[in-house]
Amino acid sequence: MNPSETKSPETTSQRWWQRTRRQLGIWAESDFLYAFWRSKITVVAFIWAVILLIAGLLSHWLAPHPIFDASSFDLMDSELPPAWMSEGDPRFWLGSDVQGRDLLSLMLFGLHISLIVGLISVSLSVVFGCLLGVLSGYFGGWLDTLIMRFADAMLSIPTIMFALLLSGVARGIIPKESQEAMAMPIIVVAITLTGWMQYARTIRSLTLLEKRKEYVLASRISGGGHLHIMFAHILPNVTRPIFVLATLHLGLAILTEATLSFLGVGMPPDQPSLGTLINEGNQYLFSGQWWVVLFPAIVLVTLSLAFNILGDWLRDVLNPKLQQGG
C-alpha cells in the first residue's frame, strides 16, 4: 500500500470536522466544538455534570420515594444496605438511613438543595462582581481605590469563617422559629459576599484595557453616556473569562455549602443537602452504615471535579495565548 494513501486518525478526524463544520452555521468560525469532542475527559465531565444537574433540579419528579412525609417511611426499614447486598431491599437501591428513608431519594433532594444554593450564589457573585468591576475600571480614582481595597479586605476573610460569623449573628437576630427558613438565604449571602471579588478584579483589569480602545472613544465622541458605554460596549466584550470563573466557582460553592452543612451551620436536618447527609452518615459510620456516607460523598466530589475539569478546559480554549502556545 502506498504510504501517501494511508489516513491517520488525526487526518480522518480533521476531514470529518471540516465537512461537519460547514453544516454548523454559527460554529463555522471557530473550533470550539471540535476542541470539545477531542478532549475525552471533558466530554465525560460534561455528561456527568448534566446528568447530576437534571437529577438534582428534577428531584421532585425523579425521587422514587417521598422524604418529607413522615407517614411514607417506616423505622422497620432503617439501616438497610444497598439492594445488591444480601440484606438489601429492592425498594431501596442505595439503602436506607437510620430513619428508614430511601437514600437515593435523600441524595436527589440533597443534590437539589446544593445545586440551588450554588447556582444562586454564583449568579449573584457574577452580577455583583461584574458591576463593581466595570465601575472600578471605568471611573478609576477614589471609586476604584474604595472598591479594590474592599475586595482585598474580603479576600483576607475565609469563606467558612465568614459564614460561621454570619450564621452566629443571624441566629442572635432572627427569631428562633424563623431560623430554619432563613438557613438557605444566609448560606447564599455568605458565599456571595466571599466570592464576588475574583469577578470584580478580572472585569476591572479588562475594563482598563477596553476603555482606551477606539470603539469606546468613538461612542464617547458620538454622545454615548457612561452607563451606555459601560454596559452596552465594554461589559459585553470582557465577559469571556467570567464563564471560566463561574464554572470553577460553582464547584467551590457547592463544596462550601456541603462543608457548612456538615459543620451544622448550613441547611437544617429536615432540608437535607449533601453535606447534612454526610454529617448524618458520619455519626453511624462505625456502626456499619457506610453507604450513607459513601454515596453522597461520591456525588459531591465527582460533581465538584466535573465543574473543575470544565472550567480548566474553558480556560484553555478561551485563552488565545494558550492556544498559540499549544
From TrEMBL:
Organism: Paramixta manurensis
Any GO BP annotation: transmembrane transport
Pfam families to which the protein is assigned, alphabetical: BPD_transp_1
Recorded topology in the membrane: Multi-pass membrane protein
Signal sequence annotation: none
TM segment ranges: 41-63, 106-135, 155-174, 181-200, 242-268, 288-311
Record family assignment: Belongs to the binding-protein-dependent transport system permease family.
Protein keywords: Cell inner membrane, Cell membrane, Membrane, Transmembrane, Transmembrane helix, Transport
A cellular-component GO term for this protein: plasma membrane
Domain of life according to the entry: Bacteria
Domain ABC transmembrane type-1 span(s) in chain numbering: 111-311
InterPro entries registered for this protein in UniProt: BP-dependent_transpt_permease, MetI-like, MetI-like_sf
Location of this chain's protein in the cell: Cell inner membrane; Cell membrane
Descriptive protein name: Dipeptide transport system permease protein DppC
